[in-house]
Structures are given as C-alpha cells and as structure tokens.
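Session log. Operator J.P. requested a structure for one protein chain; no other inputs attached. Running the standard single-chain path with token output.
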Amino acid sequence: MNPDDAALAIADPSFAAPSVLGLVFDAPLAVQLVIAVLLIAFVWSLVVIVQKLFQFAKARKEADKFEQVFWSGQALDELYQALSQRRNEGMASLFVTAMREWKRSTE
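Structure written below.
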C-alpha cells in the first residue's frame, strides 16, 4: 500500500481492506445460505464431538469400576448374580453374557 492509499484508508474507513463480516453481508443470497449451512453444520459437529467425549468418559469410568470389582477377589458367581439383577453396559454386560453362556454350556 503506498502512502497515499494509507492516508486515504485512515480518512475513509470504507477504503480499508474489507472485513469478513462485510464480505459475507455483501455476498449474494446463495453464498450467504451456503455459509449459514456450513456454520450450522460446524456447530452441530461440535455438539456431537462434545457428547461423544462425555459418553467415552462415562464408559471409561464404568469400565474402571467394573474392573475394580472383578479383580477384587469376589467369587464370579456372586458377581454374576449381582450384575444380572441390573442393566449393564460395556464390560459388565459382556461379563454377564459370557457367564450366562458358560453356565448354559456346563449344564
């Protein structure tokens, strides 16, 4: 930018480089709609990412809790009885299913 342009930009702000919002608002309607859809998709994907992070944290916490109980030395039949009484997820559900199949195969 030469010195004359710099002086003009200071005197007349509309001469300065356009802002991002200025470009968006001056764009045709079709471009504005595409930008709006992309912005909505971006926000939606962030929401999904945050939800998944919370789900993985919960699953990791439940798996750690199950591992503590599993390796505590409690009898597997007692653990099976306790876990089969409630709804389980993750490793606990796998354990209950495996114990049920093992019991069927030994009968």
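Operator note: The chain has five helices and no strands.
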